Amino acid sequence: MEFKEAKNKFVQTWGALGSQWGINKTMAQIHALLMISNEAVSMEDIMDELQISRGNASMNLRALMDWGIVYKEYKVGERREFFTAEKDLDELAVKISRERSKREIKPALKVLKEVSSIEANTTEEEKHFVSQTTKLYDFVLKADNVLDKITEYKDNWLTKLVVKFMK
Amino acid sequence: MEFKEAKNKFVQTWGALGSQWGINKTMAQIHALLMISNEAVSMEDIMDELQISRGNASMNLRALMDWGIVYKEYKVGERREFFTAEKDLDELAVKISRERSKREIKPALKVLKEVSSIEANTTEEEKHFVSQTTKLYDFVLKADNVLDKITEYKDNWLTKLVVKFMK
DNA sequence: TTAAACTTTCAAAAATAAATGAAAGTTTAT
DNA sequence: ATAAACTTTCATTTATTTTTGAAAGTTTAA
After folding, report:
1. SS3 A158
2. Protein residue with the closest CA to the C1' atom of nucleotide C6
3. How far is the CA of B35 from the C1' of C3 (A)?
């Protein structure tokens, strides 16, 4: 396999993986492209490489920056903006997990707490509902806390987790 | 909040969460409904509660069974089939993580291995590509292995993880 | 065997999500 | 101040995903 083919395969695969995980294809592809670039890339070049429109590139770059995993860069004597991705994988994973926790897990926990707190102990059906949602609340809360603790280590958290866990 | 309202809120929330994680809304809603039912539910009742068509119910129940998190049940003297969800949360999480590993992570690893193995050491660009994809391969492999190890514990793996990690 | 009771399949329709591109907005150099 | 160089926005279009529902398939009881 030659370089160009490998590069393309990587970008496509990362894009497909993105959509399986609730991130849109282009967003994941842009991120993939930036990950493997040794220098900052202009919007023009991104549009060109991925064959996407200016609007699409702009909106997805904004989203990536909102996630904190892509940065703007300015070059002296250049009017254009350039973009780079967070390349440290520990840092990348930490940022993604924090953001998803904030956007998805926390709101879900709020609902779980609400619905598990209803005054409902008449029928078996109601008792079961309260019991299940309470368990779910506890489980998700615990999982969210563990994730938080793990990513607090930042540097090499994965390696540290391996070490801790293999003991 | 009364029971019916809480139940509905739970099903809707779980459905929305599902779509953010690459699982379709109806599939997640059916799962939610079964999770909080204290007894097995017929397809008719699922269609009725969620206001969905027969085909939709059938296909998503099949998908849930393929994931191994919903089971068919037969009642004596009843022609119809009934369905229940895996209600043990440890077990549920283990099954989901195993299935996603098999379906998504393993194939991604295969591609990462391929593209990181290209003979390409001429330009800086190529060297950087190989270096980044290699790092990514190592990272994802390690994460996949940790997940595997953690879920091997099955019963109470989350609690065990908390204990191990807080030490 | 046949017919009733049920489930599955899949082509077509509907709903949802993403992409386009032109106009509006912003920044910088002169 | 102005115009060139660039980015963002958003109504519309396009692509993708999901849902429908009717026909085909299956199972069971008589």
Report:
1. helix
2. B80
3. 37
